[in-house]
């Protein structure tokens, strides 16, 4: 690690201290030496930051430090098992908004990325939104059917180099956190930074986002409530993404929604049901549903989404698990919730279903009879995570992003309708899915999946046998080579050769004597 990395880390520590981020260590069981360092760091804290919330200070610090740290905060927002539910929930709302880069660079960047195809983009506006990795402009695209208004997303210049440079420092910070924070010690901090690196690599290739838009559009072909833009592939490259322009109302602009006569409670229900259909029905979902990425169609046709840099994917087992867990809470069937946790292997079978069901009941029963505005999916998830940790359930990477997004969706729905009831909104989708899954059609689907898996195994048996034969051959060869290198074997071998030589010499002497 070079001098530059240490200097960048020193700057990061200074910014974190000035913005009061070290206040997060208050009340934490950290070693005395670390407590002293925290106290010293807080001496240079700004006076005005004491007027803001603790997590707000952390969000401010990460924003000041730039793109890599903003993304790091967003990754931590998905790791409630490390930073705690309160911190993670607030970090989930961390706005990925930074000052735009110089608009005068745009024509050159477009020409470099698209070549001759860049000429078809004209009337490019100043940046309308700027995030940590890219910014968005409005433009006119010349097409065979006439001009189209489009959105052009451009990567920041040299963003990849900056990410790689700052990732070194984050690995060091992750190591420090593991050393001094007990909650982080249970997990590998390097894995968190690894997740950030993988996510950033995908986000820094806008062709991947274009593919995500295309796949989700195909997946939701029959869903009239959730809309995604159209991709213009000829004007899309690694550093440029061109899509149709979305002329819709931001869901957070409640006054504009009211002025347009849009039924906000109905829109909130549409949002959660569309998300659940994506997750439970298809296993592929938009995983960054914060208010800045969601719009209401002006014609009342549902939700329009943008920014598909973060997508979620879960398998059939996880889809069934999610549906049955939600259904269990909705119907107060807590044993069903417990059984599904054990069936899928999330909770070790060393624990009894009865004990686990009792713990689940302690979460669900307080919701009975509560007002709609008091029933929070975020609170239920927080308690569920605490309970599953008591029963030795490890964090499931395939569900973490889903859980984080469910909290985002609920928060967005409550902007639309302060009395939004997540459970009531979810019930039709979840119940329909469960009825289908446990009914005749569901059993046929399970049988078909089992048959397909068996057929696939049969098809792969010859190649598996060949690989097994190759591995066995290599093991046998290794054993032979090892035996040849064994000192005792070597001694016996050479002793045998010497004995044979002496025997031959003796035999020759005897024969000569006899003659």
Automatic annotation (TrEMBL):
Indicate the segments forming the Protein kinase domain, all copies: 122-489
> Which parts form a coiled-coil structure per UniProt?
none
What pathway does the UniProt record associate with this protein? Cofactor biosynthesis; ubiquinone biosynthesis [regulation]
UniProt-listed GO biological process terms: ubiquinone biosynthetic process
MF terms (GO), sorted A to Z? ATP binding; protein kinase activity
**Which residue windows are transmembrane per the record?**
492-511
Keywords associated with the record: Cell inner membrane, Cell membrane, Membrane, Transmembrane, Transmembrane helix, Ubiquinone biosynthesis
Pfam families linked? ABC1 (PF03109)
The family annotation for this protein states: Belongs to the protein kinase superfamily. ADCK protein kinase family.
The protein's name: 2-polyprenylphenol 6-hydroxylase
Q: What is the lineage of its organism?
A: Bacteria, Pseudomonadati, Pseudomonadota, Alphaproteobacteria, Hyphomicrobiales
Q: Which gene encodes it?
A: ubiB
């Amino acid at each position: 690690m070079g001098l530059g990395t240490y200097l960048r880390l020193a700057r990061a520590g200074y910014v974190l201290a000035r913005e009061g981020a070290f206040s997060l260590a208050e009340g934490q069981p950290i070693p005395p030496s670390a407590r002293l360092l925290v106290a010293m760091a807080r001496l240079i804290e700004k006076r005005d930051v004491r007027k803001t919330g603790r997590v707000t200070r952390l969000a401010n610090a990460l924003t000041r430090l730039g793109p890599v740290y903003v993304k790091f905060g967003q990754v931590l927002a998905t790791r409630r098992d490390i930073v705690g539910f309160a911190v993670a929930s607030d970090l989930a709302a961390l706005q990925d908004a930074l000052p735009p880069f110089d608009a005068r660079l745009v024509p050159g960047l477009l020409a470099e990325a698209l070549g001759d195809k860049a000429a078809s983009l004209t009337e490019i506006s100043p940046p309308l939104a700027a995030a940590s990795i890219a910014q968005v402009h409005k433009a006119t695209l010349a097409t065979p059917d006439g001009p189209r208004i489009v959105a052009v997303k451009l990567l920041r210049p040299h963003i990849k180099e900056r990410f790689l440079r700052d990732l070194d420092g984050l690995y060091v910070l992750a190591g420090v956190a593991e050393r001094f924070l007990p909650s982080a010690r249970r997990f590998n901090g390097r894995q968190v930074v690894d997740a950030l690196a993988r996510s950033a690599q995908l986000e820094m290739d806008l062709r991947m986002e274009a593919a995500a838009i295309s796949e989700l559009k195909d997946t939701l072909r029959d869903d009239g409530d959730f809309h995604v833009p159209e991709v213009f592939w000829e004007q899309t490259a690694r550093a440029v993404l061109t899509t149709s322009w979305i002329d819709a109302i931001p869901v957070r602009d409640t006054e504009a929604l009211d002025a347009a006569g849009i039924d906000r409670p109905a829109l909130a229900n549409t949002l959660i049901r569309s998300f659940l259909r994506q997750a439970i029905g298809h296993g592929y979902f938009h995983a960054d549903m914060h208010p800045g990425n969601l719009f209401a169609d002006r014609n009342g046709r549902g939700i329009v989404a943008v920014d598909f840099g973060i997508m979620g994917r879960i398998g059939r087992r996880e889809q069934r698990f999610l549906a049955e867990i939600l259904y269990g809470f909705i119907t107060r069937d807590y044993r069903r919730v417990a059984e599904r946790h054990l069936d899928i292997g999330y909770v070790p079978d060393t624990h009894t279903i009865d004990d686990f069901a009792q713990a689940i009941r302690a979460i669900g029963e307080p919701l009975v009879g509560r007002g709609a505005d008091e029933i929070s999916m975020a609170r239920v998830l927080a308690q569920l995570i605490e309970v599953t940790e008591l029963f030795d359930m490890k964090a499931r990477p395939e569900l973490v992003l889903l859980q984080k997004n469910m909290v985002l969706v609920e928060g967005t729905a409550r902007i639309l309708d302060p009395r939004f009831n997540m459970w009531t909104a979810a019930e039709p989708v979840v119940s329909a899915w469960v009825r289908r899954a446990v009914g005749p059609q569901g059993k046929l689907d399970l049988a078909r999946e089992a048959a397909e898996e068996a057929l696939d195994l049969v098809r792969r048996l010859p190649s598996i046998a060949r690989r097994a034969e190759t591995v066995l051959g290599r093991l046998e060869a290794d054993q032979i080579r090892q035996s040849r290198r064994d000192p005792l074997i070597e001694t016996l071998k050479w002793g045998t050769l010497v004995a044979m030589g002496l025997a031959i010499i003796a035999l020759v002497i005897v024969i000569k004597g006899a003659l």
